[in-house]
What we know:
The structure holds two protein chains of two kinds.
Chain A: H1 2-36, H2 53-60, H3 64-92, H4 98-108, H5 115-126, H6 134-140, H7 148-176, H8 180-188, H9 193-204, H10 206-221, H11 225-230, H12 242-251, H13 257-286
Helix pairs in contact in A: 1-13, 2-13, 3-7, 3-10, 4-7, 5-7, 7-10, 8-9, 10-13, 12-13
Chain B: H1 5-13, H2 33-65, H3 80-87, H4 92-123, H5 129-138, H6 144-157, H7 164-188, H8 192-200, H9 205-216, H10 218-234, H11 237-242, H12 251-258, H13 268-288, H14 290-303
Helix pairs in contact in B: 2-13, 3-13, 4-7, 4-10, 5-7, 7-10, 8-9, 10-14, 12-13
Amino acid sequence: MRRGRQALLGWLYATPTAVFVVALFAIPLLLVIKMSVSKWPLLTGDQGFNAPANFEKAVDHRFFTDSVVFTLKYTVLATVLLLVLGLGLALLVQESSRWNNLLRASFLIPSALGLASASLLFYVFYSPYASPLKPLMDSWGFTFLGSPNAALFSTTFLIVWRYAGFYMVLMLVGLQGIPADVFEAARSDGATRWQTFWRVTMPLLRPTLALTTVLCVTGSLLAFEQFYILTKGGPDNSTITVVQLIYSVAFQGQNDLGVAAAISVIVLVALVVINALQLRAFRSEES
Amino acid sequence: MTVVSRTTSTAAGGGRRPAGAPRHRPGARRVSIAGIALRTPYWVFTGALALIFLAPLVWTAVASVSPQAGTNQVDGWGFGNYETLARYQAGIWRYLFNSAFVSLLTVALTLVISFFGGYAFARFRFPGKNVLFLLTLAILMVPYATLLIPLYVLLNEVGLANSLVGVALVLTMFQLPFSTFLMRISFEAVPRELDEAATVDGCSSFGALWRVLLPAVKPGLITVGLFSFLAAWNDFFAPLILINDTERMTLPLAVSNLRGQVQGVVDYGATEAGVVILALPCIVLFLLLQRHYVRGFMSGALKG
């Protein structure tokens, strides 16, 4: 009796959540799978089952391989830089003092900006006309977004600027979680600071490192705004990410939602597999 | 300026020297000339680092009001670039209104749903509870684009094509994993005796929730509200896909489109002004609610 009432009330309070999750998440998820095996042009809608044509078209798309390779390259670069810098900044401002609190706030402010706003900011910052670094660009003869590599590094700089503070906070939380007496023990055993860092801090920080790696890899694999706004995929289509490919197949010219859905499903499966592998790697290292 | 100082002070006060931190003895804080000389490179280095993070923001704000060829602010300082922005297509007021509408609706929906949802998950047993909770968290695992393609089709079907309400509904859904999780742990942190006592005193479960628990989970609600506002105000991808009418664009979309309008010549000044208007509410909220902002990150990190 009491349990029945409990269940009823519980469901009552959970109903809004359930409605949103089912209507805006579960149903769309099923629909995207259906779309991926249907002929589905943007304007005319569902034209019936056609599997596996969409997947063949997706893989055969002239930018498919390029975008996958570029996205992976960007992911490795961004993840390594963000994790190293996040940890570095965290170690730098770990002790609480007025000066360090000021530093933390400065590192964290860019993370309050939207990714689109930050990208627009750097779009102007990197432009050959309005950039404050214009004299430097003129005399050294380089542009920030002119060559494929320059565009990749410039965009990565923007991402590091925007997200370093965020990863710093996550690392700080991890560092706080390490009990102080472990460091005491290491010190009394005569460990140098370098040894303490590699033998004590790093292993004990593993859960945090796992979390930040998964977050960073996921975020980078799904990169869109920064490249859409800063480089528009250029120069010479060298900076097209997978999500940009989905967007352009769906809404820019090709207008094929079926193929876009097929790429989306591929990305979803890849993401689940990659995250599972990462978590497994971090766990097996532990044991 | 008290980012995570609560947690750090205990660690630093415990007499532990963190690995990699500069050599500095906690007990002996005597100001000596040698000490200052030793610390100066550290101050210079970290100060320069902080400057790298702040400089782009400061530069944009200054550049948006400074004279620049090819903009509406050619000589002297002034707000010419903001005037360009005010006159752009439907006008900045329209876009500000659209963005504010989407953001506030998203915040309101997220707060209500996660408040009740968090309560349900923290205090009740009901069939399907774990499935629903995991399904909510699973939203995090699915790429934005993977959901927006079918959502575009679905919203068209139900008459929410090209609608700001549709955008707010979608953005609310994307906020649910974080906000439901945070509200659940906020409710779980409140001792059960508190609402049980209220129920014994004759409060209904809703009365207990409203009068006793609401004040207790207020910090959690502030964090949820802050994060959903920042996410909705700044979101670019959802309106990009779901909105195609210039009258209904949100501010990030409008500022981004502004770049390519005048015969392919980019008005950098107006773009700077747009970035300032986009960034201003975020930075003000960040400075006011820093503690809540950081706690949001931490709760995710601790339990995630």
